[in-house]
């Protein structure tokens, strides 16, 4: 893998030592970002205060000095974890959760534009994208080629959950590893996920949930996929998902972050 893929491999190798979180900044600033620690802390504040426009500009500035995948792994993912934890504890309410997610999306969109031309291409890759829910997702997949590439992955944010920034980050990292992605979007019904697996023959499914009210839909999706497509495996992740919960709903894999999802996929398809 070259370009952004090579950067991804380097970024997800050995994690550098990080400074302890300060009272002002709830995430640790990795040593690799030490020279830009103030900028990182400012970006975290922009996310927590839900300020999308300055977040895009701050990301553009940081990209001049740092690897885009490292920014995702070491800034975006940790602050999203903080946002999720604050929402779960009641410190954040739904409007704050959505504003923070939009701020991260603004930064992520800048990175996606920067890396779009560097991603590896595959003539056999079938990438279907939809954010309009289960009906559109199913129709989109139906329009795709029936047989997916051998290493294709179906991704979806589960039914009832309209937050897809985490899923989109995972998608970008997996694409940088060369995996064809069948993206069903957000608020995707279990039946639509099953239809995608059946129509494409994908062997790995990734499910994301940001809200505790939607984890039941994640369990139903896993049960349906396992019943109808026993050869398919399901990995789960998201701010409200833990290893314990993943085990309790019979998920095959738990990805604590986007980097872990790439490691899981690489190991799974190497078998």
From TrEMBL:
GO BP, one annotated term: tetrahydrofolate metabolic process
Composition bias, Low complexity: 122-134
Region (Disordered): 115-134
Gene Ontology MF terms in the entry: cobalamin binding; metal ion binding; methionine synthase activity
PROSITE patterns: B12_BINDING, B12_BINDING_NTER
Assigned keywords, A-Z: Cobalt, Metal-binding
Cellular component GO terms, alphabetical: cytosol
Domain B12-binding N-terminal: residue ranges: 30-123
B12-binding domain sequence ranges: 150-271
Alphabetical list of Pfam families matching this protein: B12-binding, B12-binding_2
Name listed for the protein in its UniProt record: Homocysteine methyltransferase
